[in-house]
Each structure stands twice: as C-alpha cells, then as structure tokens.
Amino acid sequence: MIEFRNVSKYYKNNWLALNKVNLFFEKGQFYYLIGKSGAGKSTILKMIYMDIFPSEGEVIVGNYSSKTIKQNEIPLLRRKIGVIFQDFKLLKDRNVYDNVAFALQVIGERYQNIRKKTLEALSLVRISHKRNSFPYQLSGGEQQKVAIARALVKEPFILVADEPTGNVDPEGTKEIMEILFDINTKGTAILMATHDYSLIKTSIGKVVGLREGKIVKPEDIFKLDLSGRKE
Amino acid sequence: MIYIFQETFKGFFKNKSMNLITIGTITVAIFIFGLFMAGTTNLLNVIRIAEDRIEMVVYLKEDISEEQIEDLQKNISTILGVQSTQFVSKEEALQQFKNDLKEDATLLQAFETNPLPPSIKVNISMSFKTPEYLKEISDKIKIFEGVDDIDYGSEWIKELDKLVKILFFIDIFLGIIIIFASIFIVFNTIRLTVYARKEQIDIMDLVGAKETYIELPYIIEGMVYGFLGSLISTLILYLLVETISKKIPNIIFMNSNAVFFFIFFGTILGFIGSFLSVKQCINEIREMKRDDNLKRTLKKSF
Ligand SMILES: Nc1ncnc2c1ncn2[C@@H]1O[C@H](COP(=O)(O)OP(=O)(O)OP(=O)(O)O)[C@@H](O)[C@H]1O
Ligand SMILES: [Mg+2]
C-alpha cells in the first residue's frame, strides 16, 4: 500500500536526513514511527503525502510513485490521505464546523453531502457539542480532535499523524489515542510519529524505529522495554 | 462553484479594514493613472483645436478670370490632402474684413478702392496638417496660373509642431512611469492580501484542493479590487474634471471608450496581480518545505 524503496533524503545543506530507508505499510494497520528529535520522522511522513520527494530511491503510495506523479495528481493523492500535526493547523478565523467543512468544500464535494459528512466526522471525534466554537476557545486536545475530524472527513485510507499529542495534556492525549484506535478499528490505517515512548508501551500496533535517518530495531532507540507487548 | 463565491465573499467582508486599505491604495494608484489619461486627453484636444485652425489661403492675381478660378479650384482639389476649396471674392473679403473690425470700420474710409485680393480658401485633411505636407501642398499650388501668394502660417505651424512633439515625448515618458508605478502598487497591495492568508493556502494545499480551486477565490477578489478601485477613481476624476471645467471651459473628461478601457485596465490589473501573487505564494510555500537541492519540477499535464 505504501512502500519506501531505498529512500535517501538530502536537505539543502547536504544534510542526510534519511539514509537508504526501506519500509512497507499495510492496509488498516496501526504504526508507530519512533525516534529522537531530528531522526527523520517528519521527513518520512511528508514523503507519504508528497510534500517532499526522495533525493534517491522511490516512494510508492497506492497507484502513485514519487518518480512519476504529476503536479496535478498530488491533490488527488492527498484526498486519500488524512494528515494531522502537532500544531493542529486550524483556520483561526472560522469555527469548528467550518474548519471541517472547509476540507470538503475545497475539493469540490457536492453541497448536499458536506453537512452530513461534516457532522458525522465531528461526532466520530466527539466534538459535536463545540461545533460553533472557534479554535482559540478550545483546549489543545479539542483542537486536535477538530484536526482529526478534518482529516477524516474525506474518508482517507490512512491517517498520518506527526506528533499529534505534542501539544496536548495527558488527559487529552489519552482521549486522542482512543479516537485514533477507534478510527483504526473502522479500517483506516494509522501512521503516527512520536517520541513519547510511553504511549507505545501500553498499546497495540507495529513500531518502526528511526535513528539518524536509518531504520533500526525499536528496542535500540531507547532502553525501551517492549517485552510482554503484543503487536 | 458555490464555495468559490462564498469564499470570495468571506474574504471580502472578513477583513474590512484591510480590504478598505487595499481598495483605497488601488484607487489612488489608478486615480493617478486616470489623471494622466485625462491630461493626455486634454492635451490632444488642445492640439486638435490648434490644428483645426490651420488653413491655407491662396491669394490670386487681381486680373484673374472666372474660368481660370474654376480651373484652379479643380486643380487644387485633386492634390492629395486637400479636402475642399472655397472661393472668396474681393467683395466678400472686404465684407469679412469689415465684420472683423466692426466699430473700427471707419478705418476703411481711408481706402478709396478695395485693396483686398480675391482668394481661395483650402481646407486640409487633419492628417496632412504637418509642416512638411503643408509645404508640399503649397509648392504644388504655387506653380498654377493666376496664383499670387500662399499663406498657411508656416512659421507658426513649425513652432506648434515642435511643441507638440516635445509634449508628446514628455507625455509618453510620464505615461510609462505612471503605468509601471500603478502596476507595481496594485500588485504589491494585492500580494499583501494574498500573503495574509498564506496559512489558509497551505491548508488547502494539504487537504488536496486543486490549484485552480485554491487560486480562484483570490483571483476573483483581486479582480473585484481592481474593478472597484478603477470605478471609484473614475468617479472622483469625473467630479474633479466637472469642477475644473466650470473655471476653465475647454477642459474635457475622457470619452466613454476611454472610461471603459480604464475600468477594464483596472480589473485586468487586479486579475494579473492576484493571479501572480497566489501562484507565487503557493510555490513559495512548497519550496520552503522542500528546501532541498532537488530542482524537481513536476511535470504539468493538462
Ligand atoms: N527543510 C529542512 N531543511 C534543512 N534541514 C532539514 C529540513 N527539515 C528537516 N531537516 C533536518 O533533517 C533532519 C530530520 O528532520 P525531521 O523533521 O524529519 O526530524 P523529526 O524526526 O521529525 O524530528 P522532530 O521529532 O524534532 O520533529 C533533522 O536533522 C533536520 O534538522
Ligand atoms: Mg518532526
């Protein structure tokens, strides 16, 4: 479904951010991508929604390859991928409902469907009661739920999450994780980058370790005790 | 489609103060351009009035016969650039002279006989009213039988021609500066409004909006700015010219074609300005993220 073939990435200063990475992500699975700051997690995620491209190697997402995709196909690819960030990236000048509906409006969804799908997505992340609030009136956890709703409203096959709990308190983090598992149970694959290793200990999912741009065994990253953990 | 208009509408009313400043700036820029256009129109008008007065008078010998006059008129009429001819007899010339002098007519009592020669007035086509053409026409008439002298104010016309050339040069020079300045101002003003919503453009790009979909609301908004800016400045200009023309009667406003062109120009400026700004903004966002040495320009397929 998503495949990295010998992917390397150099940034402008010739910094090697990824070094011959080979990865395969299957449908409907839950993946953690763990590694210290600067390990290259965000770089991998950005390559999936083709915000950046490999310097060497190839990334394949569904029917698209980083080598052959055309500029006007990228929007079509992104409609199949939900993305959420540490800083939520909500539009400050519109309320919760409009923030989610926005994602459908800009891809030209039919007017009649927008309301139904938006309300469904809001209820899926349990934020319906705040649909008229503005982002500044919400806690970090609530804002992230709105961002998840916006990512899900297009019914993507995978949700890519870059440190989704980075700006969320423990209470909110627990809720966000529950929502992500919910979504996963319903069939959407999840790929979550994090350096909060405690999240992994207590939950299901496959773990991919990353250190200095190389794939490593998760146990090697930290003195991480994953014994007794089931995948 | 509904979305695009909604979004345009929202963008327009959400940031009222910023939009007013934008429209104000564009209005001022286009107004200066309008002042220039009105100035040029008036300059052309003055030149036209001056050139209208240019006429050629062919003075005839006293002893000329009626047949000769008829022949002469025919011959003159065939010359390129001559529109029409008109014979003025000695008596008519005297009458005209008397009318011009009015109360000073007593002066004429001094003459016993009519001192004025008969003449033929030659009307010249507008485009032949240059010193060169006038001389050419006059040279051709000079060789005809019965012609005594020709007067077309050659000295005066040379001066006028020189002045017109200088004025045109200054006008075109000014025009170029003003056009570029107003394009620059309009572009940059619209750019600011687009860049103020960089975040929104970024999010649209991330959720999979097509480029045209991202761009359209901004482009429509830019066109509305250009349209309103030029419309308002046309109105102000019109009122200004009206007020001035009460004091200086010969001042005219742009003609309706020019007004149409002017508003069209403003709207197009808004279109191009917003189109380039939003394209540049999208590319800047993407470049910034890629931030690599890969000159990977994705193939565009249409
Ligand atoms: N645009 C860029 N230009 C130059 N270097 C970059 C750029 N983006 C990332 N890098 C470098 O590439 C390496 C990997 O960055 P990346 O953002 O993928 O790390 P990360 O694992 O997501 O880190 P964090 O946990 O801090 O988000 C880092 O060393 C970073 O400094
Ligand atoms: Mg990161």
TrEMBL record, chain A:
GO molecular function: ATP binding; ATP hydrolysis activity; transmembrane transporter activity
Compartments where found: Cell membrane
One term under GO cellular component: plasma membrane
ABC transporter domain mapped to chain residues: 2-227
GO-annotated biological processes: cell division
Coiled-coil residue windows: none
Subunit and interaction comment: Homodimer. Forms a membrane-associated complex with FtsX.
Cited function: Part of the ABC transporter FtsEX involved in cellular division.
Pfam families the record matches: ABC_tran
Membrane topology of this protein: Peripheral membrane protein
Taxonomic superkingdom: Bacteria
Name of the protein: Cell division ATP-binding protein FtsE
Keyword terms: ATP-binding, Cell cycle, Cell division, Cell membrane, Membrane, Nucleotide-binding
UniProt-listed NCBIfam families: FtsE (TIGR02673)
Gene3D superfamilies: P-loop containing nucleotide triphosphate hydrolases
Family: Belongs to the ABC transporter superfamily.
UniProtKB/TrEMBL annotation, chain B:
Domain ABC3 transporter permease C-terminal: residue ranges: 172-281
GO annotations of cellular component type: plasma membrane
Topology in membrane: Multi-pass membrane protein
Biological process according to GO: cell division
Segments crossing the lipid bilayer: 20-44, 166-187, 223-241, 253-276
InterPro entries reported for this sequence: ABC3_permease_C, FtsX, FtsX_ECD
Domain named FtsX extracellular: residues: 54-150
Record bears the keyword Cell cycle: yes
Organism domain of life: Bacteria
Keyword Transmembrane helix part of the UniProt annotation: yes
Subcellular localization(s) per the UniProt record: Cell membrane
Keywords: Cell cycle, Cell division, Cell membrane, Membrane, Transmembrane, Transmembrane helix
Family affiliation: Belongs to the ABC-4 integral membrane protein family. FtsX subfamily.
The name this protein goes by in its record: Cell division protein FtsX
